[in-house]
Amino acid sequence: MSTTTTLFDPTEVGAWRLHNRVVMAPLTRNRAPDAIPTDLMATYYEQRASAGLIITEATAISPTAQGYADVPGLYGTEQIDGWKKVTHAVHRAGGKIVTQLWHVGRISHVELQPDHQKPVAPSAIRAEAQTVLIKEGKPEFQPTSEPRALRSEEIPGIVQDYRHAAQNAIAAGFDGVEIHAANGYLIDQFLKTGANQRKDDYGGPIENRARLLLEVVRAITEAIGADRVGIRLSPVTPANGIDDADPQPLFEYVVKQLAPLHLAYLHIIEGSTGGPRELPERPFDYGALKTAYQMAGGKGAWMVNNGYDLPLANEALAEGADLVAFGRSFISNPDLVARLRAGGPFNKAHRVTFYGGGAEGYTDYPTLDQAG
Ligand code: 8OZ
What we know:
Layout: E1 11-13, E2 16-18, E3 22-24, H1 39-47, E4 53-60, H2 77-92, E5 97-102, E6 120-121, E7 130-135, E8 138-143, E9 148-149, H3 155-171, E10 176-180, H4 186-191, H5 206-209, H6 211-224, E11 229-233, H7 247-258, E12 265-269, H8 286-295, E13 301-305, H9 310-318, E14 323-326, H10 328-332, H11 336-342, H12 368-371
Parallel strand pairs: 3-4, 3-14, 4-5, 5-10, 6-9, 10-11, 11-12, 12-13, 13-14
Antiparallel strand pairs: 1-2, 7-8
Helix pairs in contact: 1-2, 3-6, 7-8
The site of 2-Phenylacrylic acid (8OZ) has 6 residues, from loops.
């Protein structure tokens, strides 16, 4: 008898046994003043602990790695202590949680950088993008600042910051980490021709543009074990003004290199982050990407993301995806798993409270029981 996998079936991924295949996608919420996680954040994540796996909001690996007001970090002891409250709350509620390690590269603003220095990037090319400052308690969108190109000899220090943040994640009680290599941030800037014009070993051919990504993956997997590490990729998103001249061979190379490194999962954003899943001007064959990974011996779970609802998620599972990440629907539905099981209804998410603020639009969305 053939059985169909559902979103609600448990699964083994890397070092973890997950209760279900519903993943809470990383969601930036700008509620960590001084980059330190708060009690309110512990409540927010605990409310969502019925997800098979929670991926935290993107979290800066160093002071220069951050590019938005009030996003959390994971480089100092106060930050580790703040995150402990979050991981304990989620574990108490029976959940699993990894943190997303983030370096924004050029997607920053001098006002957010130590000593108001220029943000760092593969090349001194300003992004066509905006960042969020918070002025008088209100989010304010500003164009990103012009970056400076990293010197070759600075790159080992960046890799070391990733390694250190991953060790801090384990010290803070996380089940593992996700490397943020998507959405036009530092690692994606190195990968893609639109942001990388380097002449050294980190620019030019695909093998060079993928070098930073692979060095970061190796450093982190050596430090905390590959079975606690996932990575997020976005082959064609135009987010944060990023683009590549020829993404299919680039990403097939990346996943083939990742295959023997035994990561817990690969997390793929299909299409434009938070937008259309198909981009006529940026075609991409995700099936070929997965085949390239598996043909190279890759055994990590395949996690898909972007605009999934229940029917689309079931289709993805039937086609061989292992995990489905839900973003916006987790903002407004703390009990998303129960609501998916029940076939709805779903609360609507209110955009005005996405970035910054307090409990409103954060910890006050009702569960099905509360909506009664
Ligand atoms: C929305 C606002 C700020 C940052 C990403 C970390 O796109 C983000 C982000 C999303 O990956």
